[in-house]
Amino acid sequence: MKVNAAPSRQMTVLRSLHFASYATMVLIMTYFPLYFYSLGFSKLQIGAIYSVGPVLSIVSNLLVGILSDKTKSLRRMVSLLYLGQILALALLLPQREFGIMSAVMALFYLFQTPINSMLDSLTLLAADRMKRSFPSIRMFGSLGYAISAVIFGYLLKTYGSDLTISLALGTVTASLVFSLFVADYQASMRKFEFRALWAVLRRRETFGFFVFIALVSVSHRMNEGFLSVAMRDNGAPDSVIGIASLASSASEIPVFFLLSKFGHRFREFPLLAVACFMYVVRMLLLSVTTEPWGFVAIQAMHSVTFGIFYITALRCLQSLIPEEYRASGQAVFGVVWTGIAGLLAGTVGGWLYDAFGLAALFRAGAVFALLGCAGFLLFHFRRTAP
To answer: How far is CA 376 from CA 62, 293, 303, 337, 342, in A?
Structure first.
């Protein structure tokens, strides 16, 4: 589809694509583990399946990002990623054996882990061409996540966990259909040169940006990976754990709306430092909270932590990475945000949990966020120094 497609139509397509794509994320993050558990898999086996994702994301994000920039086919690459997910889910549907399902899930993660980075990259390009704000599109992903969490929870409670894979096939197929109607916003870019991309990534400010992003990402992943464990250890039923997940996704929406209207008025590094400091507060509160509903209330801070941090980080990435390397830069961001941070949070967090308990784990997350805050403030003062 040509770039001069009607902006109003493209906005509808992109918003629908984010809605459907994040509906799939609900199933992957919340209901796939319950599906595996219903098949009789142990917690160790489920953990093994999920540990494959961060490892594969390092390879798949970089490969897909570089291929997208080199071939100028980001839109087609997004569609191919959805097509690969459909193939993997179709193979997964009749399976019940752990070994086979592990291999199929590895195939699924190969196509699934780069999708958020590539979708964000495509949306950033589209928003720039249409003179629209990225948060005004991305907020529909949060809306899709929140609404789908409620609807899928009801359907799976009524009809059983066996419906999980079929629902995922439905949401990924819808995502594929929407992706086919997105215009090609990458076709007019300059030729990709790997040497020039490496020169951009090696710059002090770009390298430092990714280092500080990694530090804060570890804090975020510690919250994401161990929150349900903390709530379960403090007596929270599954329904309250689900409400906590809903509270976090729903709280993003008003912040995304506000950032779409007023975010451009604030400089990136100070705004990132504010979000990092709120992560410090969030993690410290988690370290002392013992009431299930207290955890739910803290999850509402997702708005002023992830909501501000993620949108501002992508905005900062746009200023650091030239447009012709946008998918590759987004891929590196995805590697840091999902792969490296996920591995560190899982290994370091798991060790801290076993050795010192959940309170120590969340305090460590606060330290990671504080280091990120200091780093972004340092960058800001260096930029503004006479």
So the answer is: 25, 33, 19, 16, 21
> What does 136-164 look like in DSSP terms, one character per residue?
HHHHHHHHHHHHHHHHHHHHHHHH-GGGH
**Whole-structure pTM value:** 0.83
Residues 182 and 197 grouped into a single domain: no
Residue at token pair 């992508």: 314
Identify the domain boundary among 167, 188, 209.
188
For 194-219, write each residue's pLDDT tens digit: 666 677 778 888 899 999 999 999 99
pLDDT (tens digit, 9 = 90+) per residue, 254-290? Answer: 988 888 888 778 888 999 999 999 999 999 999 999 8
* Through-space distance between the first and last CA atoms of the chain, rounded to whole angstroms: 47
Cβ proximity of 27 and 155 under 8 Å: no
Q: 166, 188, 210 — which closes off a domain?
A: 188
Q: Which residues of 316-353 are buried (b: 16+ CB within 10 A; e: fewer)?
A: bbbebbebbbbbbbbbbbbbbbbbbbbbbbbebbeebb
Q: Are residues 177 and 204 in the same domain?
A: no
